[in-house]
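Handout, section 3.2

Students often ask what a structure token actually looks like in practice. Rather than define it abstractly, here is a full record for RRM domain-containing protein. The first block is the sequence as you would receive it.
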Amino acid sequence: MQTTLVEVAGKGSNPKTTLYVGGLEETVNEATLHAAFVPFGEVKDVNVPLDHSAGTHRGFGFVEFIDKDDAAAAIDNMHNAELFGRVLRVNYAQPMKIKGGEKGWSHQAVWADSDSWLDRQAQEAEIKEMLKEPKKGAQPAAKNPMEELEESGAAQ
């Protein structure tokens, strides 16, 4: 079996105690997931999101431990382990994100940055208008020297 090095703090890890568990078989429920992870420490919460249209779970769940060392031990032992004939993927869970915001995902509601968006749109419109207007007192643009030669050659 392949071992996994677990880094509790640093880039790409979640120092919290919530784990993502992917690759769940259809019959796995919260009680089964709790029983599979309780040997590694005290489990605070187990959540298996449901697909509302089908009424079944979506193939993944979340297990939250009280102690972060217990979560690290669970990742080390359960990542690539087998449960009901399926190989599990166990990692630190990413923080909850909401669709929207500047980069497509955000920790805030979509409408929370509407004022800054409106301000940016107004600034962009103002810049476009300034670029369209000729400057007062500005001299007309100089002709291209090649065009001047062509015109003088065409006059002869």
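Discussion prompt for tutorial groups: Residues 114-132 form the longest helix (19 residues). How would you have guessed this from the sequence alone?
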